[in-house]
Amino acid sequence: MPQHTSRALSVSLFVVVLLLFALYPPLNVPRAPLHDLHTALDGRIPLIPAFAIPYLSFYVFLILTAVVLVVRDRNCFNQYLFALILCMCVAYVCYGFFQTQVIRPLQLPTGSLSGLIRAIYASDNPYNDFPSLHVALSTVATLFLARQIKPYWPFVVWGSLICVSTLFVKQHYIADVIAGLVLAVIATRMGRNAFSSLAARA
């Protein structure tokens, strides 16, 4: 693929990603019926305010991945953006037809980090949960970074902490996390296959 064409494609995909992120808040409002995926195991998971830190690092992780990929491999960067778009589009369809709700704790623990939990709850309604985009997108980023950076284990740990944090800040249930992981693997494979074929034809 010619360099100018690849650059134009990157810009187009990046704009679509930004538009999809902007679309999330208007979609995150309650619509009947609301489904409850809570299980007994979810009830055993405690609220741990310290996990607000990896949870809030989500956007930093995505941006870092984008910077690494655009510097190292433009085609891989396009694959990454395409995978993000696939994840968000599938998730938004699920939110439209099968909207779930997470029941948050009525009382929050005291401590210096409890304010971060309050900030998370204030900025994000608890309705669009299945699949978890926090999990799906951070897993996509982890899978792409693991192929570009050695040693890759620090980024695997970071991405894993983001995924786990969704449970410990009570933003998602276990089913949301599993669905997000499955969605990420499928979207990553589709993104790689689509752009690998495109590069081969060029």
List keywords for this structure.
202 residues, mainly alpha
Characterization of the model:
This protein has one domain (3-201). The protein contains 9 helices and no strands. The protein has helices spanning 3-27, 40-44, 52-56, 58-72, 74-97, 114-123, 133-148, 153-168, 174-201. α4 (58-72) packs parallel to α7 (133-148). The protein is globular. The termini are close together. The model has no long low-confidence stretch (mean pLDDT 92).
Provide a short characterization of the protein structure.
With 202 residues, the chain is mainly alpha-helical. It is 71% helix and 0% strand.
Please provide the ordered H/E string of secondary-structure elements.
Answer: HHHHHHHHH
Residue share in helix:
over 70%
Which shape, going by the Cα principal axes?
globular
Query: Structural class, from secondary structure content?
Result: mainly alpha
User: Which oligomerization state do the chains in this entry correspond to?
Assistant: single chain
Our measurement of the CA-to-CA distance between the termini, rounded to an integer number of angstroms, reads 5 Å
Number of domains: 1
Amount of beta strand: under 5%
User: Count of helical segments?
Assistant: 9
Strand segment tally: 0
As residue ranges, the low-confidence spans are none
Please summarize the sheet with the most strands: none
Global Rg? 18 Å
Average the pLDDT over all residues and give the rounded result: 92
